[in-house]
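Question thread 4412

I'm putting together a teaching handout and wanted feedback from people who do this every day. The idea is simple: show students a protein as raw sequence, then show them the structure tokens that encode its fold, then repeat with a second protein so they can compare. Below is the first pair exactly as I plan to print it.
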Amino acid sequence: MGKHSMFHHLWTISLAIAVNGVDTVTTGCNYVHNGETFDMSGLKSSTYYSVNSTNYVSYGFVFNVCNSIDWEDPKNPSVCTLHETGACEFQYINDEEIAIDAYGYISTGSWSHMDDRFGFGPGPVYNMTGIDCKRSIKENTTATAVIVAVCDQSAVVPRATAIDSDYWECTTSFAIHSKDACLQDGTKFRCVNNHCVASETGVSAALCEESCGDGTFVCFKGACVTGTDGGTKEECEKMCKGENEPFAAVDLE
């Protein structure tokens, strides 16, 4: 296979489904918060998401939510087992993707609420655990994968970005930017350092964008947010996709 360009859990029900002629495994895909239940199945891929590692140029990850990845290394099929794996690290070697470790098994996957999602504000995250991390200096360490669901009304097709990873501790985190992550739960936004961020109190996203910053947009962790000294939303979206040179540095921490 060639190189790619790029935890409250109601239940887990595993069943085989056919996707493009290949069996994958899907699990219950509900997120529960403040007594409300949200269906997150719009974020699962029929195949997988693929991102490059943030730390090593020759490494990458394939992952999914609520669905096993339709991906395997034919030379090492037991590393990230087809129909069982939800997140797998691989290495590019001679233009091939060689499976390294399973960071998450889909049978362990569940949605939960997190207040601080790596700078993305409060909201849903998908958690999985994988192999025993024998390279960690800590005892009884298990590989973990965390996927943040990021509301992006412009992302009709979900888009994945890498947040961070730690090879020696077997941890990794990703974000899925999608309009399907914009939950109809009355989520509010407030202006922080000229940027609209999700908050327990505030105003709608549209009202926040009208009054926050100087009306321009900047790229923050793969998503366009209101800011200052940025560009139009169209320019920002191109920059986030790597089509333009960055025109602003953003730090919401």
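The second pair follows. I'd like the answer to focus on this one:
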Amino acid sequence: ATWFDGAALSLPSWLGNTILWFEDSYGSAIGLPRGIATLALLATLLLVLINVATSMLDRDASVAGSTRRKRGTAIVIAGHSGSGKTAMFFKLMRGTDPHTVTSMKEGELTDVLHSERETTPPPKPVHVIDFPGHRRLRGGMSAAMGKAAGVVFVVDAKTPEVRATAEFVYDLFTNHNFNATAPPVLFACNKSDLPGAMPPQRIRGLLEKELDRIKDTRSALDDQDDAPELKLGTAGQPFSFEHDAPVEISFSACSVSKGSLADVEAFIREQVRP
């Protein structure tokens, strides 16, 4: 017996006997030295496994590439009607406090932020979109999210309208274009200067509880309708922004009327570099 036979017999009996049978049946038949046929077989199997693994990785990369797109260049200001988002839009871009009513269509401006007007050299202009807050006017959400580098979601810290706000957030988080570009979201808690205004962490907790209720209700409806909608969160688990938000999120207190928008401006400039 050769060293190869001894090595084969030291393996578990089923494996060693199989290797010796393979050598006797094929290696000897084509005149290969003892053990070479087995080594050739192992090398072939290894190459096959490498090719299969490479093909799977390429397929996964292709799928990821087809669902994730490059972010846009605009900042989208969104929020439920009455939150102060249009007032924030004009304060950021023009430094004014106009009397505003419910937005019936998108407002758009491309300019440097008003607070940067005296900066030298002038920074890069920002394209800012004021997206309508009323539910019936949200048909353009997909188009707006396709342009977004970041989203400022305005919440009224004094009267947060938790149910309506959470429904808007749910629609946003399950929007296909939003998930494809994955822009970060800053929840700007406006009117934080008013007596009785809720702190950002309190608003965050209320929205999480309401989003948990909405996701369970919407999930049940989607299952009945077989609708190909994106799901939010995990079935049977409480919703949390930390684990279930599809993008990076943050919360901050601000006040449009007082001009306290430093965190909002910093967020904008993180997404659109000067």
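Top answer:
Good format. For the second protein you could add a caption like this: The two ends are 78 Å apart (CA to CA). The longest helix spans residues 36-67.
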